[in-house]
Specification:
Elements lengths: L6 E5 L4 H12 L3 E6 L2 H13 L3 E6 L5 H15 L4 E4 L14 H29 L2 E5 L12 H21 L5 E7 L5 H6 L3 H9 L9 H12 L10 E4 L16
Parallel strand pairs: 1-2, 1-4, 2-3, 4-5, 5-6, 6-7
Length: about 260
């Protein structure tokens, strides 16, 4: 029960890594507020948590709307009396090539992943300071490495890493820790949308040093660790959870086997 008596908000919690994180935190004793725009998906996650004996509440929230974010924090405190943990997992990727990117498409990559995370961190800060809380921001390996067609998304996720470091510096003396998890390829709905067939999934798995695509629960474990007191002396750090993808230098035809 590593999060016993803790209250956590997880955004983008209707599916994938967000839903897995909410379930995992509830298993460890946290009261979890699951937030996203689609309430029906959130209610399914809450039902799963409650069926397993945990405590959770669904809050429909548009993370890009500052008033909606304020209401999310207010509802959390009203329901559970405090807020200890924030997991910024909400994401939107709008692909496009730089030479033809529209300004609107470019900005859409930032408004959820980066701006929305900042809105929630800012609104949650008084509670986090009072409770010596923790923030875990979910970035992406695209924030570390380039990828064709993802310039806007990559820039937003790189910005999230930089924002997290700055927040860690600014908030550290107040007892608030801020860290970043950097996922690689996981079996989530967006990933399955990009590679819906077994052939493409197998090819992706083969390209990874561990030889498989990750399960969202594996990323949830990393988020849980950084949110817990086990990581009490870790702040301003990035934990890469990518099956070894970013550890490998691709050398074309070179082979040592």
């Amino acid at each position: 029960m590593r999060l016993e008596n803790k209250v956590a908000i997880v955004t983008g919690a209707g599916v994938g890594i967000g839903a897995a994180t909410a379930r995992r935190m509830a298993q460890e004793g946290a009261k979890v507020v699951v937030a996203a725009r689609r309430l029906n998906l959130l209610q399914d996650v809450v039902a799963e948590i409650e069926a397993a004996g945990g405590t959770a509440m669904a809050c429909a929230c548009d993370i890009t709307n500052e008033e909606s974010v304020k209401q999310l924090v207010a509802d959390t405190v009203a329901a559970y009396g405090k807020l200890d943990i924030v997991v910024n997992n909400a994401v939107l990727m709008v692909p496009g090539m730089l030479a033809s990117y529209s300004s609107k498409a470019w900005r859409q990559n930032f408004i959820v992943s980066l701006d929305g995370a900042m809105f929630l961190m800012r609104e949650a800060y008084p509670q986090l300071k009072a409770n010596k809380g923790a923030v875990v921001n979910v970035s992406s390996v695209c924030g570390l490495l380039g990828s064709v067609g993802t310039a806007g998304y990559s820039a937003a996720k790189a910005g999230m890493i930089a924002m997290s470091r700055n927040a860690a510096i600014e908030w550290g003396k107040k007892g608030v820790r801020v860290n970043t998890v950097i996922p690689g390829v996981f079996l989530t709905p967006p990933t399955l949308g990009l590679m819906p067939d077994e052939e493409s999934q197998a090819a992706t798995a083969q390209s990874l040093p561990l030889g498989r695509i990750g399960d969202p629960a594996e990323c949830a474990n990393a988020i849980l660790f950084l949110a817990s007191d086990e990581a009490s002396y870790i702040t301003g750090a990035e934990l890469v959870v990518d099956g070894g993808r970013t550890a490998e230098l691709i050398t074309g035809t070179a082979s040592w086997d």
